[in-house]
Amino acid sequence: MFIQTEATPNPATLKFLPGREVLVGEPRDFRSPDAAAISPLATGLFAISGVTGVFLGSDFISVTKDETNWAHIKPAILGVIMDHFLSGKPVIAEGGAGPVDFDEVDEFYEEEDKEMVEVIKELLATRVRPAVAMDGGDIIFKGYKEGTVFLHMQGACSGCPSSTATLKNGIENLLRHFVPGVEGVQQV
Question: What is the DSSP letter of 26?
Answer without folding.
Answer: S
